[in-house]
Amino acid sequence: MKRVLVKELAQKLGEEVLVQGWVFRWRRLSKINFILLRDRSGIIQVSVDPALVAGLHISLESVMEIEGIVQQEPRAPEGYEVVARKVELLAPASGLPFNVNAPNLKVNLEGILDHRVLSLRHEKINPVFRIQAALVQSFQRFLDQEDFLQVFTPKIVGAGTEGGTELFSLQYFEEEAFLAQSPQFYKQMLVGAGYERVYEVGQVYRAEKHATSRHLNEYVSLDLEMGFIADEHDLMDLQNRLLAFMFSRLKEDCRQELRALGVQLKPVGHIPRVPLQEAVEILDREFGKKLEGFDLDPEGERLLSGYFLQHTGSEFVYVTDYHQDHRPMYTMPKKNNLTASFDLLFKGLEITTGGQRIHDYALLKANMEKKGLDPKDFSSYLDSFKWGLPPHGGLAIGLERLTAQIVGLANVREASLFPRDRHRLTP
Questions:
Q1: Which of 107, 110, 139, 141 has its CA nearest to residue 122?
Q2: What are the domain boundaries of the chain?
Q3: Is the distance from CB of 399 to CB of 124 less than 8 angstroms?
Q4: What is the largest CA-CA distance in the chain?
Q5: Beta bridge partners of 349
Q6: Beta carbons within 8 Å of 380's beta carbon, 6+ residues apart
């Protein structure tokens, strides 16, 4: 008999079916047992004659196969149930470190992550990654419609792309190599290869010794790059439409998951834009917060987001015109030592960095030297600019951060299936 999913049972009233899944609840009475069986699509009540399970060592989270008849039952949670005729225990469960079927897990985050396969079954954790998958699918769908090409670039590289020392090194035969900080160089070169518009969904690696609620050392980056732009505002316009599409699709495709997590999605309207210097002035004037240097700190991001939510109704805000000292060497410079770059804040957290790139060979080489980099270390990247690259730019969205902010998670590690951070290499 072919397996039937729980979500399909409403159309099978009066029919014999085979269901398979995990024991979510088991209630034993003298004349009847009730098993709540969970599969990937939902939970169904199964009524079982005690004789059918006699001698079986069934426990919560055991895997079972049940054949029976779908019948109406007003007292059942769904208004119908499966009346079992045959029961088979496929895999018993034992030694559960916590009750994964409790409404709220009474265990700290480290315990949740240590026992990830089990914790992912929880009704408030499992939907997070269905939402995350839907975000990636809609990201891809929108860019496909915009004539972008999906690409797959190397994750073992010979040099870092973002500058600094935040690189994981590894032995590559007789040479030293590194895990990629981003696909930045390859995105630009592929624009120059004639594809003009490219995107990638892939892991990136940052050897930052952080142990915060905001950082991962391996995360998924949603990257795009496009040629023939006028300036960085073309990129912000594109991302505004991209996010509006992603949120619209998420609301449509993940109704059940959003409802389970109590998430109310606001439509993405026009995203306001504020130069960094003006953002600093707002924080000083409105909150008495003074910033040193040329960047926002986490508190500044939260306060600025709250300000724009109150005054514009937008959960997003672009911060533009960052100083050259705080942007990589490939970022297009502007007057007054500023750059054609931006960050996007969402509910108080930076989720995107982007901007226009330098497309002129001489200017890029000079900027490398200005940043203390040796152009010879980037020869294969730099040479491609001799052959004609159009004005171009791009951006990268941190998938885990976007997921965490949508769902309302306190720690970005909760938005990673198997997070890699300063202290975690397993599971």
A1: 107
A2: 6-91, 126-415
A3: no
A4: 85
A5: 346
A6: none
CA distance 8 to 39: 11
422 has a pLDDT exceeding 80: yes
Cα-flanking dihedrals φ and ψ of residue 141, to 5°?
-65, -45
Q: In what order do the strands lie in the sheet with 349-357?
A: 149-150, 197-205, 218-227, 392-398, 349-357, 341-346, 316-320, 273-275
Residue 100 has pLDDT above 80, yes or no: yes
Q: Assign 3-class secondary structure to 177-204.
A: EEECCCCHHHHHHHHHHHHCEEEEEEEE
The yes-or-no verdict on residue 123 having pLDDT over 80 is: yes
∠ CA 366-370-376, rounded to 5°: 60
Residues 231 and 155: their CA atoms lie apart, in Å, by 29
Say if residue 292 is exposed, middle or buried (CB neighbours under 10 Å; 0-12, 13-18, 19+): exposed
The superfamily in CATH containing domain 6-91 is Nucleic acid-binding proteins (2.40.50.140)
d(CA 188, CA 385): 9
Closest CA to 225 of 415, 355, 344, 349: 355
pLDDT tens per residue across span 155-171: 999 887 766 668 999 99
Q: Do the domains 126-415 and 6-91 match in fold?
A: no
Residue with tokens 């059940």: 256
Mean pLDDT of 312-326: 96
CB 332 within 8 A of CB 355: yes
Q: Kindly report the backbone phi and psi dihedral angles of residue 404, in degrees, each rounded to the nearest multiple of 5, phi listed first.
A: -60, -40
Q: Is 354 in a helix, a strand, or coil?
A: strand
C-alpha angle with apex 322: 379 to 201, nearest 5 degrees?
Answer: 60
Shortest CA distance to 20 belongs to which of 83, 121, 89, 85?
A: 89
What mean pLDDT comes out for the span 267-280? 97
Q: CA–CA separation, 178 vs 322, rounded Å?
A: 28
Query: Domain 126-415, what fold?
Result: BirA Bifunctional Protein; domain 2 (3.30.930)
- For the record, the structure tokens of 36 come out as 């709540």
Residue 212 has pLDDT above 90, yes or no: no
- CA 22 – CA 288 distance, rounded (Å): 54
Six token digits for residue 149: 């090409």
Question: Which segments of 205-335 does DSSP mark as H helices, in order?
Answer: 232-253, 255-261, 276-287, 298-312
Question: What's the Cα-to-Cα distance from 129 to each of 133, 147, 397, rounded to whole Å?
Answer: 6, 27, 17
